[in-house]
Design a protein that fits this description.
This protein has four helices and two strands, in the order ααβαβα. The protein is an alpha+beta fold. Strands 1-2 form a two-stranded parallel sheet. Helix 3 links the parallel strand 1 and strand 2.
């Protein structure tokens, strides 16, 4: 594992929370579909790229559409 201080030394900014991480995101990459609490963190116009089972995530898909997340 690479410690955070090495990322910072290379110019990265380490966020303190998921909300801080997502607030200005244009693109979010995820392995799974987001939980309802995570959908609320994604800004309008954000592009979400993830593995999503559309037949089992109707509520999440609806929430993403209502939030303006593509």
């Amino acid at each position: 594992a690479i410690p955070d201080d090495q990322f910072v030394a290379a110019g990265a900014v380490i966020a303190n929370s998921a909300a801080e991480t997502c607030k200005d995101a244009a693109v979010v990459l995820a392995v799974q579909a987001p939980a309802a609490t995570e959908v609320a963190l994604l800004p309008k116009g954000c592009l979400l790229v993830c593995q999503m089972n559309s037949y089992n995530n109707e509520k999440v898909i609806r929430a993403l559409a209502e939030a303006g997340v593509t």
